[in-house]
Every structure is written in structure tokens, then in C-alpha cells.
Amino acid sequence: MSRAELNKPAPNFALTDFNGREINLTDFQNKKNILLVFNRGFI
């Protein structure tokens, strides 16, 4: 995976949501803001 750089678009990545669906960053390409939260202790 490439590193994020200041003032550049974020590299694409995929994560699994709590329903087991794969979500890609490109799914939100035309959105202005995206909030990503990592809960370390969440099961």
C-alpha cells in the first residue's frame, strides 16, 4: 500500500464493515468529507 501524502488524494484501501461487506475508499470518491474511525477494543 502506498503512503498518504499531504495535499494529495488518499491511496485506495478496502475494509470490512460490521455486516461483513467490503467497503472501498473509492466508494466515497465524490463525497466532500469522510470520517474513518478505528475502534481497537470493539468486538
Shape: globular
Could you name the ranges where pLDDT drops below 50 across 5 or more consecutive residues? none
Mean pLDDT: 81
H/E element order? EE
End-to-end separation in angstroms reads: 26 Å
Rg, nearest Å = 12 Å
Helix count?
A: 0
Name the assembly state. single chain
Query: Biggest sheet: strands, sense, closure?
Result: 2 strands, antiparallel
Assess the beta-strand content as a share of residues: 5-15%
Helix/sheet category? mainly beta
- Tell me the helix content: under 10%
* Strand order, largest beta sheet: 1-2
Question: How would you explain this protein's 3D organization?
Answer:
- With 43 residues, the protein is an all-beta fold.
- Helix content is 0%, strand content 14%.
- It is built from no helices and 2 strands.
- It has strands spanning 14-16, 22-24.
- The protein has a two-stranded antiparallel sheet with strand order 1-2.
- A hairpin with a 5-residue loop joins strand 1 and strand 2.
- It is globular.
- The model has no long low-confidence stretch (mean pLDDT 81).
